[in-house]
Model the fold of this input.
Amino acid sequence: MSDKYLGQPLVRKEDPRLLRGDGRYLDDLGHDALAAAFVRSPVAHARILDIDVSDALDVDGLVAVYTHEDLPDRIAEPLPLLIPHPDLTHPRTPHCLANGEVNHVGEAVVMVVATDRYLAEDAAERIVVTYEQLPPVVGIGAARAAERLVHEDVPGNVAARSVQVNGKGDAHQAIAAAPHRLTLDLEIERSASMPMEGKGVLARWDADDKTLRVHSSTQTSTSVRLAVAAKLGLPPDRVEVVTPDVGGGFGVKIVHPWPEEILVPWAAMTLGRDVKWAEDRREHFISSAHERGQQQRIEVGFDGSGRLHGLSVEIWHDNGAYTPYGIIVPIVSSTQLLGPYKVGAYRVEFTSLYTNTVMVTPYRGAGRPQGVFAMERTMDAIAEYLGLDRLAVREANLIQPEEMPYDQGLVFQDGRPLIYDSGDYPKMLRMIRELVGWDGFEAEREAAAAEGRRIGIGVAAYVEGTGMGPYEGAHVKVETTGEVVVSAGLTTQGQGHYTTLAQIAADQLGVAVADVTVVTGDTRRFKYAVGTFASRAIVTSGNAVAVAAGKVAEKAKRVAAAALGGGVEPGELELVDGLVRHRDDHTVSIDLRTVAVLSNPLRYAFDEAAKAATQFASVSSSGEEPGLEATGYYMPERSTFAAGAHGVVVETDPETADIRILRYCVVHDCGVVVNPRIVEGQVHGGVAQGVGGALYERIVYDEAGQLVNASYMDFLIPFATEVPQITTAHMVTASGLNPLGLKGAGEAGVIPTSAAIASAIEDAERLTIRRMPISPSELYELRKGRVHA
Amino acid sequence: MSEQRHQVTVTVNGVTRRAEVPARRLLADFLRMDLRLTGTHLGCEHGVCGACTVLLDGVPVRSCLIFAVSVDGHAVTTVEGCCEPAGELGPVQQAFHECHGLQCGFCTPGFITTITAYLEENPKPTEEEAREAIGGNLCRCTGYQNIVAAVLRAAELKREREATP
Done:
């Protein structure tokens, strides 16, 4: 193996197709399929009294209308609880179509199938559903007050209550005994993944073959396959799930099976016709998942140097109407909150609450932005209280490099201990100090003030668990043409896996990246996989590809040694430039493609290359199984921990309270980097979403549970004019947990952004920020002292 | 209750195309469903995101806000038409490739068409002008920094290619 490609900023192999308009996203497939549309609840909480479809029956092109009553047993049951947990005492999951009750605006009630989407929507519009409205529970305050219930049989609206302590003493006692104490009440509002492509499903039932092929815009094809097979009562071997090009995921597409992922295949089987559903933007807003919404109370005890003695955190987490994805988000918030710090005795308690709103499941960062907000707001509050430098307070609490691996004493989201594998946090803070210009900032502030301008600086650090298990796998094959085909089980949504996985395979096999083709998310090609989420893909799948390609390389050496004869041992061979050659005598060599030919002993020659592998050819048999191919898996022992720090300078307008980012700096450590161009792109995209979450994006429900900003006109995703130029600096602290030394990078950019921006605005304005996002009007109100203590 | 259909003739990427469509057929759906040019994507269907941007007689428009019947007799350029005549990547497409200006690629066609038209108007933009030029298109993946770089690189490539025909 070589490291010719590892670490190289190659341009992406997937680009030319996508740039020409030749991408194949879900709605680009199934041109002749029937179209599905859904009647969704317009109210937040109600009993369904009647569904009258008679008016819809006249619509030309109508094929079928389904309500809950039409669904067979297994499909009529609630959807599965994907991630059970002992603390999730009251899990509730939705039905594919509402069963007599709706619990949020957007819940699917009726499915319509017609010859095209226009006609399906015509029919859906004519269906009359009569509701008996029930009082809705909207917002964490109402859920906590529990004067009304979302689910009648869930007391207090409490889905889960969970406590963790870190085994370093009683947090309350430590806080009480500390020289200084502070209490902070914080709040983060709801946001959402909002990929540019919504969800979508296309299903084809082959009645002759009794097989089902489902295309879904998902982050996990393998698990959708098993879920669909279970729900439809089909043997898994009769179901294949293919992920086409996916127009972004950011978490929302890891949830499965969505109602549509069951209903569309079921309709295709029932009708004997291809059926397709492509989610529109409003559907995505009101019926796909959201995230972020939390209230937090923090009590902290510390000494005069700002060093923490004890930390107690209470989190109230809005999980929406259902909990199919369990309590992953608040678990991540409560564990990743600790960041790069030693906090003394730690106790965290979270309460996960039902509301009559869309369910909450991971969105890029998955609870970390909220946790980091809590920790970093606390650091700033301590600095303010003691009159110390904000970076100095952070530095006083850092885990030192020589303390690695560092056990935080908690259980992480993967059920394994929260042990940081490696990292150099003091260096990280030194780098951000320099990059953002921390030390020279007072002069900058004075210069700006002299011009009547108000600027502030902020910083925030985080540690991110990445590369969690249980595993990923890949199949690597060398074709007789010399082409290498890598089939990875996980899916891809823009992270560049066709390039990065090819780089890893090419190095193992000594071939050009151009000769490697990567396929992802197609269960016809690879059936055992988990999915792409939680910054895990390159760690788990990258190492799996290395394992599989490494096995292929070993096999190639054995086959080549037998073919070369003359006493050459496999151990003396190396794979370089498409050849298997003797490492000392380069004249002893054989083409890798010829080795591929020889790896499949033939009776019948069908072309020139194949002649070499027939029984009358002179080459001796290696006794190997046919095919120059291998399957490999990587199963991490536990997560790897990436880290980073962001520094930001903002300017606030003294009159209008407009908030402008003047510079944004990122120090980022994701271990060994496979492709720096791609990692940098991931950081940029994450920061942009972080800026959105800090200053612009919020999901707004009114008291009745109506989502009042369910469009891109009103939910303000930043345009290019709102996202700053980002300056990045990289550190490499390799992970010792996996052979390639990788850590994940996908979520990093979004994690500390709200915390850093809050810190900078606070610094510019000399007031206290306890809630994000913040708009100019909110800042204006804060200035008047009318909002928040 | 079957819908009345109308004959529409449009020059798409230099080729005359005809189809019979209902009056309410959106231009985006006409391109995707009737002409099977699926490079034009729908991200919001309410004119904000810009993914569906095509050029109507050379001017960027949101194809989700226009009926196919209303472009009868006009010329439309889609992302498929932004390639070089021989099929290589056009300058804007090539610049996106070199600058890593795309990740999932879903919004990309709208950026390609928008920038293609913009560079006709302003062949040598500054960085600030480049950022402003893409200020009407949403991307959820890239954070725009590399798209801004791609606009500047595309301008260079376009000049180079025009200088050496």
